Amino acid sequence: MYFASDNAGPAHPAIVDAIARANQGYAMPYGADTIMDEVRAQIRDLFEAPEAAVYLVATGTAANVLALSTYWQPFETAFCSPVAHIHEDECNAPEFFAGGAKLTLVGEGDKMTPDALRAAIAKEETRDVHGPKRGPVSITQVTERGSVYSLEELNALCAVAKSFDLPVHLDGARFSNALVALGCTPAEMTWKAGVDVVSFGGTKNGCVGVEAVVMFDPQKAREFELRRKRGAHLFSKHRYLSAQMHAYLTGDLWRESAAHANANCARLAAGLDSIADASFMYQPQANMIFCSFPRAAHQRLHDAGAVYYIWSGELDGDDPQEHLQARLVCDWSISEAEIDQFIALVRG
Amino acid sequence: MYFASDNAGPAHPAIVDAIARANQGYAMPYGADTIMDEVRAQIRDLFEAPEAAVYLVATGTAANVLALSTYWQPFETAFCSPVAHIHEDECNAPEFFAGGAKLTLVGEGDKMTPDALRAAIAKEETRDVHGPKRGPVSITQVTERGSVYSLEELNALCAVAKSFDLPVHLDGARFSNALVALGCTPAEMTWKAGVDVVSFGGTKNGCVGVEAVVMFDPQKAREFELRRKRGAHLFSKHRYLSAQMHAYLTGDLWRESAAHANANCARLAAGLDSIADASFMYQPQANMIFCSFPRAAHQRLHDAGAVYYIWSGELDGDDPQEHLQARLVCDWSISEAEIDQFIALVRG
Amino acid sequence: MYFASDNAGPAHPAIVDAIARANQGYAMPYGADTIMDEVRAQIRDLFEAPEAAVYLVATGTAANVLALSTYWQPFETAFCSPVAHIHEDECNAPEFFAGGAKLTLVGEGDKMTPDALRAAIAKEETRDVHGPKRGPVSITQVTERGSVYSLEELNALCAVAKSFDLPVHLDGARFSNALVALGCTPAEMTWKAGVDVVSFGGTKNGCVGVEAVVMFDPQKAREFELRRKRGAHLFSKHRYLSAQMHAYLTGDLWRESAAHANANCARLAAGLDSIADASFMYQPQANMIFCSFPRAAHQRLHDAGAVYYIWSGELDGDDPQEHLQARLVCDWSISEAEIDQFIALVRG
Amino acid sequence: MYFASDNAGPAHPAIVDAIARANQGYAMPYGADTIMDEVRAQIRDLFEAPEAAVYLVATGTAANVLALSTYWQPFETAFCSPVAHIHEDECNAPEFFAGGAKLTLVGEGDKMTPDALRAAIAKEETRDVHGPKRGPVSITQVTERGSVYSLEELNALCAVAKSFDLPVHLDGARFSNALVALGCTPAEMTWKAGVDVVSFGGTKNGCVGVEAVVMFDPQKAREFELRRKRGAHLFSKHRYLSAQMHAYLTGDLWRESAAHANANCARLAAGLDSIADASFMYQPQANMIFCSFPRAAHQRLHDAGAVYYIWSGELDGDDPQEHLQARLVCDWSISEAEIDQFIALVRG
After folding, report:
1. What is the CATH number of domain D13-252?
2. What would the pLDDT profile of D129-179 be if each residue is shown by its tens digit?
3. Which among A13, A65, A230 has the least Cβ separation from residue B92?
4. Residue A243: per-residue pLDDT
5. Contact at 8 Å (CB) between A307 and A338?
6. What are the distances in angstroms from CA C175 to CA C145, C157, C170, C183?
7. Is D78 helix (H, G, I), strand (E, B) or coil?
8. How many Cβ atoms sit within 10 Å of the Cβ of residue C17?
9. How many CB atoms lie within 10 A of CB A115?
């Protein structure tokens, strides 16, 4: 019963097989491998974006900070949710790659609202050269609390950004889970909504370690390449990144894997929802659940070896009825049996 | 006949197998996987350094710049050869990760000499706060021209650094090839000589993409961890880095692979040496050859599909006798047949 | 009637005279001038800190960012008020000089409270290497809203910082105004409270352009010197900075000038307080007032040529009774007649 | 007898008077003062550049690094002489302000030659993304060894830069001395030759501390403003910078002062040239001399209180006939009597 993160489960066997298959003979290094040519075509097809620039890196943080910093000047501030990965979980990597730029936190929740975004942007640049200038808007989809922006919400946020002539970045570490949840196309969730550059995640959804950066206007492609190399994120044996992404995009593996994870999550959520003592902090929409239930249930889970984060509260404590919050993440590899066992333990 | 680089050949099958074997069940992310515990022990044993701090990253540039910047202040200059990878081939990554520090180029050749190093270090810091302060010394072993520093040379360079109380970094992207060439122990080539931190390469010697950073004094270990995360070089699914390094160090694969590459290179060098019209620019000592021979020979090779870098000169040209320089790199996977075919084509 | 800022009035004549007097013969450059020796002694006496390291720069932002960055690692976050000058008015200079570090905003108001500071510090570093590490605490005295932390408040904030072993920086751009308001000694407002490094302002209080950075523990003095040079803030003709600071500290000019400014402000505040239609947003404690009164009064002031910032609202508008907020800053040079004229115009 | 540097002498009284005269009433801060309007017009007239963007800062290093970094990407390398101030005397400030960019040293001497520059530029960018990209060319006029580039030389260097489409920066810390030496116009020495941005020095030529940055194409003016603020180099009480520059440009003070310094230097050079035992390392062309003469002469000077740098060699030593090199800099304030006394002491 591992619900700690979608980065702790195994990779999909097809991904590992692809790495093995790619391990034949010589291949041009640094992204000039022929598999990458296919990946580029796959992604352009998938996103209905024949001009898009497509690059691969190995970590989600690298995808985010290289993508963002290409659209971000060091005297600017970027706008994001206060729980955005780029703010809370990247140890100042965005600020570092942007040369000392700033992040402005928008609103209080996991989702930015158009009004809060408009107000935050409007407030900056009222101070001539003294305050930072307005920079890119970064949206996380799925959010760090498991919520999914609807297409209407995405369009509205991008419209605010565009009204100030600001670029939009989408942190899509869980892009596929969001897409499956919305039932829309990749184009609808990106450039048709107004997104300029997306971090299209593979790692959390069954890959070993690969993320694509897709820039719909290729104008800054060369700058991205230089920033990637300068960030030490250009792989010499690039074919093994290409092979992962190629397998991921072949036969809709990416979509199946996300659908599987979301279905697992829905099963888990339904089970928890049926328990009187359990309540959600956020409505689960993709593959992540934040749920509160009594300490006694946590202790039963703990004793049975379940692994997940206690998001607030302490397992040790006197009151068995006190509610502690759990963060539960499902990946493709979780079995229905594990889920049902987990639910049964919460129910007690 | 691929002699372009040791990053263009396939990974050793044992490495890919290890990735597949690691792909079972859950593993703690971010370096807390159990395979990493074994890797740490393997490397400490190998280097006879029970206290060493050991970290993995996926690219050689990442290993270099994260290792160096941990020992480098932004107002300092680091000392290296004018052909060092950190100077010529990392697109300002060292300067970036060091917060805007400088590199001072020592001497004219691929190898730094103790005298040139002493003079270069002595010259800095004669200008009070106006000039940069003295920073770390970075030595590349194997050098970018295929030479190998002897233990005496390494000891002498480190002694110069120590006489100024400066830390020493060893760029060991081809560490194993050097070690095989010298027939010494890892400890002799590092901390016993005076090296403080080493980039211990795996990628060029048969791995998919993994490099270890070994810090013999663990005092700066935590800072390194923070710099790695901030550089976006911490892998969530770290087990796949661990698995590669584990397989690489198991059963002396790393040493065999390097021995194979060096032997291939020696065979190629011997063949070229027997050709009157071919001459070496540097004496080949590990797995890399810089050799000059007539354009006509290059054209024969080209027509036969041989792949390698023409280091100076142009393949197109009128004079078939004009000498062009070739850079030839052997990896573990080159066959003797290919080498012999290459030699035959040069001979004509 | 100029109440726009204390950086728009003239310098005190004694400061300009000192520059002229210093303009005799040769002087060692870069801070080795003999006047600087006297300044160092003056400041050590003033702060009762015989070991303190003392440096001069020409702008308040330079003093802040050089002081802070000497105590701040790039993977850390510093703590400050959401209206701190370092956050709102330095165009990312702190983030730049700290190599891409972050600022965490504490609370909602101009003053940080110990509880809010403790909570903000406690929240960071719960994420291992993923979140930024805890960095220095920066306190602004006088705050950007004209409030003054009491000694009790300063001590409490510093105690929180010390409980987490964090250094404390005091942005004292209006240090003298605060000191006069509190009636305490410089030592009480700094190191006795727990402040490690202070930006001791001269510019806003009658100098041409000079700020001292005082580090009570000289351990990082050399690093500061290197950061100052690298920031391009080391003056070759340093004697003209020294001369200003020397005159400022001679005969208590600094205290008189601040006392004058504070008295002007008190007179203005008393006048405004007597007007039914005027109300303070913050209780004026030093030389700055945030006050709300009707548009009609603003228009009278405007027509009479008064210069100040309308902090919120627009001068143009239909409703003469609508309240607009004014920011009013008094420097030493304002006359009582101007103040009284201003009050009369508000009263109408 | 002070020949240590042109930053150790007094400011011209007219400059200090201007500061005093500017010290009347209120002035808009941050460069919006009315004196700055006049300065802008003066500089545009002087340079015959009606569209030029003009900014003031207080140090030569600030002028250089802010000017250069506005034309420099962090993944680029800038080209300069190995003795350039930006390389040797700014403690990595250029690399810092450029976000971690690199400097490529051109040739061996104080002057870059067109051939060496072309070769250096050509060599970069042969490595695709691996090496740094080509960045701006920075020329120092007067050089750090007292030489002056002729207009032909300047034109030829700029032509090389332009052939690679690279911007050109002129470090004019001693711009005026060079101009007087060449007898040309400011336009001829800058934009007519191909210079894009110049650091026009005031400090070394009789000001207290002011340098202008002149950008002939104003396209990057706003970025410069933001970089200046972010570098903490925007003065609140800007009028005192404006006043200095205004006085400096009024009545040709700048030219007279430089002419005076150059004439002093010529007198000193003529005297030294008449001494058999003295020899120049560089032909003096402006206000700086590098001259070699016996230790005994140095000791006579030392005993008489002369102040200057012994550039190589040590005053203490056994052999009175051994030659030591002196660096001798003349500013406007040196008297003929001092010069003659110095010569007499060398002659012995």
Report:
1. 3.40.640.10
2. 999 999 999 999 999 999 999 999 999 999 999 999 999 999 999 999 999
3. A230
4. 98
5. no
6. 14, 17, 9, 12
7. strand
8. 14
9. 12
Distances (CA, A) of C193 to C156, C158, C174: 8, 7, 18
The DSSP element (H or E) to which C171 belongs, if any, is strand C168-172
Helix (H) or strand (E) holding D59: none
Inspect the interface and report whether the beta carbons of D92 and B101 lie closer than 8 Å.
yes
What is the per-residue burial (b if ≥16 Cβ within 10 Å, else e) of A152-167? ebbbbbbebbeeeebb
Query: Which pLDDT does position A51 carry in this prediction?
Result: 98
- For the record, the structure tokens of C222 come out as 């050399």
With CB atoms and an 8 Å threshold, state whether D5 touches C233.
no
Nearest CB partner across the interface for A23, out of B4, B11, B93: B11
Q: What is the DSSP letter of B313?
A: S
Which CATH number, 1.20.1250.20, 3.90.1150.10, 3.20.20.60, 3.40.640.10, labels domain B254-347? 3.90.1150.10
Point out the residues of chain A with pLDDT beneath 50.
none
| ipTM of the complex as predicted | 0.97
Which 8-state DSSP code applies to residue A113?
Answer: P
Interface of B with A in 274-303 (CB under 8 A): none
Residues 6+ positions from D235 with CB-CB distance below 8 Å: C58, C59, C209, D29, D30, D31, D56, D58, D241
Instruction: Say if the Cβ atoms of B129 and C75 lie within 8 Å.
Output: no
> What pLDDT, on a 0 to 100 scale, did the predictor assign at position C124?
83
Confidence (pTM): 0.97
- Angle, helices B13-22 vs A13-22, to 10°: value is 180
Asked if the Cβ–Cβ distance from B232 to A237 is below 8 Å, we say no
The CATH number assigned to the domain with range D254-341 reads: 3.90.1150.10
- B96-145 pLDDT tens trace: 999 999 999 999 999 999 999 999 999 987 789 999 999 999 999 999 99
Cβ pair A307, B25 in contact under 8 A: no
Going by C-alpha positions, the residue among D23, D54, D16, D1 that lies closest to residue D221 is: D54
Closest-CA residue of chain D to A125: D226
What are D341's two structure tokens? Answer: 């006394």
Q: For Cα atoms B326, B331, B334, give the angle at the middle one, nearest 5 degrees.
A: 90
Task: Tell if the CB–CB gap between A26 and B10 is shorter than 8 Å.
Answer: yes
- Order of strands, edge to edge, in the sheet holding A323-329? A279-280, A288-294, A323-329, A309-312
CA-to-CA separations, D12 to C27, C247, D208, D244, D334, in angstroms, rounded: 14, 21, 8, 10, 12
For the segment D254-274, what is each residue's pLDDT rounded down to a tens digit?
999 999 999 999 999 999 999
Class of domain A13-251: alpha beta
Q: Is the omega angle on the peptide bond into residue D142 within 30 degrees of 0, that is, cis?
A: yes
Measured CA distances, B62 to A225, B19, B66 (Å): 16, 21, 6
Task: For the beta carbon of residue A188, count every other beta carbon within 10 angstroms.
Answer: 16
Per-residue buried b or exposed e for D193-229, using 16+ beta carbons within 10 Å of the residue's own CB: bbbbbbbbbbbbbbbbbbbbbbbbeeebbebbbbbbb
Is B14-252 assigned to CATH 3.40.640.10?
A: yes
What is the b/e burial string over C78-94, where b = at least 16 CB atoms within 10 angstroms of the residue's CB? bbbbbbbbbbbbbbbbb
Contacts of C122 by beta carbon, 8 Å cutoff, 6+ apart? none
Domain ranges for chain C, please list them. Answer: 13-252, 254-347
Euclidean distance between CA atoms B322 and B320, whole angstroms: 6
Rounded to 5 degrees, φ, ψ at B56 are: -115, 140
CA distance B121 to chain A (A): 26
What's the CA gap between B55 and B60, in Å, rounded?
13
* Pairwise CB contact (< 8 Å): A225 & D129: yes
Interface of B with D in 228-257 (CB under 8 A): none
